[in-house]
Every structure is written in C-alpha cells, then in structure tokens.
Amino acid sequence: MKKLFAALGIAILLTSCASNGRPSDRERVLRAVGKPTANPSDIVKAELSFARLAREKGQWTAFRETAAPDAIMFTPELVSAPIWLKGKVDPARATEWQAHKIFMSCDGSMGVATGAWQGASGGTGYFTTIWQKQDAQNRRLRGKDVEWKWIFDHGVPLDKPLAEPDFVTTRVATCSKGALPIVPFAPSGEKNKSGFSTDRTMFWSAESSADQSRSLLVRMWNGVEWEEIIFDNVAAPTQ
C-alpha cells in the first residue's frame, strides 16, 4: 500500500511537470491561447482526494460530495447516484481503494480511473470511475480552481485481490483536427447511459439488464481507430 501511494505521488510529479517543475512547451502554448490541455495527474489527485475524504468524513458522504448532479452508478442496477446516495448512512470504516490505471481525453475534459478496492470486512475487488471537468472555462474566468466530479462509478468483487503495480500507468487519447468516425452505441434510456468527452476523443457506455448483469465500455481515439480500453462485463448475481 505504501509503495503504491508513493508511486501515485511520483506519477503526479512526472505527468504534471515536463522538467524542473515547469509545464511543457505544448502546455504553455495551449494555456496561452486558452485551450484545454490533458493532465492525467488531475485524475490521480482527484482519486487521492476522494479516498482521503472517505476516510475522514465517511464513505457515502465522500461519494455525495464528489458526485456530479447527473452521476450514475451500478447498485447493481443502473441508478441516479444522488438519489441512491441521499441519506445513506456512512459505515464505521470506509472502503479503501487505489487507482492502477488512468486514461484521459485529448482535451483533458474527461478521465477514467480503474484499480483495486479493499472492504472493511475483508472483501476485495476492482473499481472503475469516470471523472468529468466541471465548467472549466467559466471557473477559470472567475479565478477559481478547476473542479472534477465523478459521473459514473462501480465496483466489482473478486475472489483474489488485483496485483499491485509498481506504478500508476497513464494514457491520453490522440487529438484530432477533423471529425472522428462514429462510435456505434445504443441511445440512452433507463437502463443504458453513454457519453463523450467535450472533444469527443473518449466515449463510454454503461448498461444494466433485468437479471442485474451489467457492463461498462470505454473507448478512446488512438489516432487510427477507436480503441477499447475498458470493458467491464459483470455477470448476474448467483444469489
């Protein structure tokens, strides 16, 4: 655990700084013209803050305070997160989790974290959380820090814990000057929700079925095609 958190700290430094703590030439140019830039360390920091808030203020309190107004989650049905979380009592001890992989759209408007969790009662599993930057342009004009909220979250139990990586890996979608090929997906409905990053270089789709099986698909543009980076396909509960 200590090794992973140390790696997270290193990842923040490496991904946010080009050299000597200064942004890269590309970042400086884009910031100067007011264009958004991708910085995966934003998601690393959001995850660390989320987990710390859960430890300090309570698990469901942390979920409520970091969720977007239209956030959804699997319970295992697909539900509105704010509605499901309303009034939910925090457990005595919060679940702990650590991001293993971070993915981000080219413009930095959306990020995905996936990794491991450990329950207070000894259970273990993996999670996937999708984060979205909130009203970044207006917040910047008002001199406020960029704020991230999660728009999708789910956790899945495993018989064995995920292997702990030596460091957190990060990937950023390839930027595109023109229109990208269409991603086939079902229209959003009661049991199906989907969305794109602002620049449309990242796509996600979540779906739940009547038998409580569920799936999450995330794709990102790699410059040639839509690459599947996450496919969580969870079978219906056996009990």
From TrEMBL:
It comes from the Bacteria. Keywords: Signal. Residues 1-21 form the signal peptide. PROSITE patterns: PROKAR_LIPOPROTEIN (PS51257). This is Uncharacterized protein.
